[in-house]
Every structure is written in structure tokens, then in C-alpha cells.
């Protein structure tokens, strides 16, 4: 079963949408788990008080969510760029689709594992997403140098 360029565009577009929604949701959830400025009003204050009441011991929920967002900032942008680079450079279509889906699925899984402190699964999810990015990057280069690539006129 072969894919055509339209299939790749659809897949990468959907993956881009899903990774953006994940990032947006993560940032929104982080906002509810951190100490807010006084001008943010009563809701923010109640969230901060509830967080302090439920965060026992040395577990710092605010710091955990901050690290989740920072990890996304370090990885999601590059992954999205590499998905589109693989598409534009006309890398192998199946490889682009598989690695794009793997990247998105394992970034979701990484965040879930981070929230629930699931080690070593969090690290495994991170590694799979990084391997998908490396695969997309290599696929981009192969596509760019392919003599059958219409860009190489």
C-alpha cells in the first residue's frame, strides 16, 4: 500500500494540529498549577491555595508542570519543523507518515508519563520521539538529494 503526496500532507497537517493542541493544553494546565500574579484574581488564588494544600512533602507540582512545558518547548518545535521538512523535501512518504505519527503519539505519552511520574516510561517515550525526529531529519536529507525529486531540476 503506497501513499501519495496528498496523504502525507493530510497526515503532517493533522499531526501539526494534534501536537499544537497538546502544547496548548499543557500550557493551560500548567497555568492552573502555578502561583499566579495577584492581579489574576480570585480563581488563581484559590488554585494556588488548593495546590499548596495537596502538594505534600517535597513534591512540587508547580515545578513539575514548568518542566513539562519547558521540555515541550525544547522538543515540539523541532519535531514540527522536521515533519514539514520531510514533507517539503519529498522524503519517503511512508517514512514521513510513520515518524510523524510516532513523534506525536510519543510526545503525548511523554507528557502523561511526566504527570504521573512513570519512570522509565517517560524516558522511553522521550527517546522514541527523538528517534522519530532523527528519522524525519535523515528522511529529509535523503529526499532532498534524491535524483527523482522534482525540486532537483
Overview of the molecule:
- The chain is mostly helical and 153 residues long.
- Helix content is 76%, strand content 0%.
- It is built from five helices and no strands.
- It has helices at 5-31, 42-54, 61-88, 93-115, 121-145.
- Helix 1 (5-31) packs parallel to helix 4 (93-115) and helix 3 (61-88) runs antiparallel to helix 4 (93-115).
- The two termini are 28 Å apart.
- The mean pLDDT is 86.
Tell me the total number of β-strands: 0
SSE ordering = HHHHH
C-alpha geometry: elongated
Largest sheet: none
Ends apart, CA distance between termini: 28 Å
Helix content: over 70%
Low-confidence parts: none
Calculate the mean pLDDT score and round it. Answer: 86
Strand % is: under 5%
| Total helical elements | 5
Q: What structural class should be given to the helix and strand makeup?
A: mainly alpha
CA-atom Rg in angstroms: 19 Å
Amino acid at each position: 500500500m503506497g501513499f501519495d503526496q496528498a496523504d502525507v500532507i493530510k497526515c503532517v497537517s493533522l499531526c501539526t494540529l494534534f501536537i499544537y493542541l497538546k502544547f496548548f493544553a499543557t500550557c493551560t494546565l500548567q497555568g492552573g498549577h502555578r502561583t499566579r500574579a495577584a492581579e489574576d484574581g480570585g480563581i488563581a488564588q484559590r488554585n494556588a491555595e488548593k495546590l499548596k494544600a495537596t502538594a505534600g512533602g517535597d513534591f512540587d507540582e508547580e515545578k513539575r508542570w514548568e518542566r513539562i512545558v519547558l521540555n515541550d518547548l525544547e522538543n515540539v518545535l523541532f519535531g514540527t519543523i522536521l515533519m514539514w521538512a520531510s514533507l517539503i523535501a519529498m522524503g519517503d512518504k511512508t517514512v514521513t507518515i510513520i515518524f510523524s505519527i510516532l513523534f506525536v503519539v510519543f510526545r503525548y505519552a511523554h507528557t502523561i508519563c511526566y504527570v504521573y511520574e512513570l519512570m522509565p516510561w517517560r524516558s522511553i517515550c522521550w527517546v522514541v520521539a527523538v528517534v522519530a525526529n532523527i528519522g524525519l531529519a535523515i528522511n529529509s536529507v535523503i529526499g532532498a538529494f534524491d535524483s527523482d525529486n522534482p525540486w532537483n531540476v
